[in-house]
């Protein structure tokens, strides 16, 4: 069974930082664009950031632009989401999803992704 596993979530104070990791199990990520989503209770799932296969194209939601940075290490089959200056409204379960595509990336929830992780909780609170 091919899997994506997220890690790095936790409880952090406002203004703090966390780095999330999305790691592939039993396959390599180099053929996939990766998108980070988040979903807070009672809210719709939001595409936070995405990165292309090569890492050369990235995109961010306005709500996180300038605070979050997505990167990837294909050799380690891992994609990272560095989250700085965290706010209480960033509290959510964060998921990574893989889409097999030739170029670019998307933050859309409307497409069918090939793999999803189980999610990691991020809580920003004092």
Describe this structure in words.
- The protein is globular and about 40 Å long.
- It has no helices and eleven strands.
- The strands form two sheets. Strands 2, 4, 5, 6, 9, 10 and 11 form a seven-stranded mixed β-sheet that branches. A four-stranded antiparallel β-sheet has the order 1-3-8-7, with no helix packed on it.
- The protein is 0% helix and 48% strand.
- 33% of the residues are buried.
- The chain has 126 residues and is mainly β.
> Strand tally, please?
11
Q: Give the oligomeric state.
A: single chain
Return the structural class: mainly beta
How many helical stretches? Answer: 0
Strand content: over 45%
The mean pLDDT is: 95
H and E order = EEEEEEEEEEE
**First-last Cα distance:** 39 Å
Helicity range: under 10%
Radius of gyration: 13 Å
Poorly predicted runs:
none
Reported for the largest beta sheet, the result is:
7 strands, mixed
List the main descriptive attributes of the protein structure presented here:
126 residues, mainly beta, 7-stranded mixed beta sheet, 4-stranded antiparallel beta sheet, 11 strands, 0% helix
Topology:
Blueprint: E1 3-7, E2 10-12, E3 18-25, E4 32-39, E5 46-51, E6 58-60, E7 68-73, E8 78-83, E9 92-100, E10 115-116, E11 120-124
Parallel strand pairs: 2-11
Antiparallel strand pairs: 1-3, 3-8, 4-5, 4-9, 5-6, 7-8, 9-10, 9-11
């Amino acid at each position: 069974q091919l899997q994506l596993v997220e890690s790095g979530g936790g409880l952090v104070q406002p203004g703090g930082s966390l780095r999330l990791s999305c790691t592939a199990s039993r396959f390599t990520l180099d053929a996939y664009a990766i998108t980070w989503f988040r979903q807070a209770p009672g809210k719709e799932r939001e595409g936070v950031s995405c990165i292309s296969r090569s890492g050369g194209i990235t995109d961010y939601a306005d709500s996180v632009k300038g605070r979050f940075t997505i990167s990837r290490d294909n050799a380690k089959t891992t994609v990272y989401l560095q989250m700085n200056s965290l706010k209480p409204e960033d509290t959510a379960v964060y998921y990574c999803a893989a889409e097999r595509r030739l170029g670019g990336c998307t933050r859309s929830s409307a497409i069918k992704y090939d793999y999803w992780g189980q999610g990691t909780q991020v809580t920003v609170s004092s």
